[in-house]
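Aim 2 progress update. The chain analyzed this quarter is reproduced below.
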Amino acid sequence: MTTPIRLFLAPLFLSLCVGCSTWSRIDCAGLITSGRDGWQHPERVVEVLALAPGDRVAEIGAGDGYWLSWLSDAVGPTGRVYAVEVDDEKVQALEERVAEDGLANVVVVRGDFDDPKLPDGGIDLAMTVLTYHHIERRPTYFRALRRDLSARGRVAHLDDRPDVSAPFRWFQSEGHWSDPEGVRDEMAEADYRLVATYDFLPLQSFQVFAPNADVARAGDAAGESRP
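Predicted structure tokens:
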């Protein structure tokens, strides 16, 4: 967005941010200056996920790599970030972005539709953003993902909600969202429990899951192999 357009839209955005619950959760200044940062709130997402130096994080469906710098900074040089994609062109684009941005602790992974190809027992947090609804046979997929989680591993899902009102609904593609209750049901079917939910994102649900206790014990027995 060019500077003249930003200056023209600024008063409109600022006026809309007052008095509407959805707009009030948007950083209008960030929206005008940085685009997605204004509604995705990456700093706060990373903060509530409590990522620490040395953690091993995987983003399943890393897309254009928006999250990689945030995750890379959070886990530090002793940590590892796995950027998973299933499309060869996206994998190549991610590799180029990682190289250009100097993200030495980020590894790009060419996953499969039924397997993210992550190290067994090596992931402290697996994260999907605007990806959950694209995954087929989700209970089966996330049941298989349990073997990749460490003993303290978690799975976070951020996805568009179907209840978003206009004008934001106009920018959603039909069916490109997940009902939060449906996510909980499918993750329960995959033998996970809900451990946290956050409502500060204006357009997305944000839920965090952990394997049930018996699954966690199995993961603990498998060990925590680091890359």
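Strands lie at 56-60, 80-85, 106-110, 123-129, 149-160, 192-198, 204-211. The chain has two domains: 1-40, 42-222. These observations will guide the mutagenesis experiments scheduled for the next reporting period.
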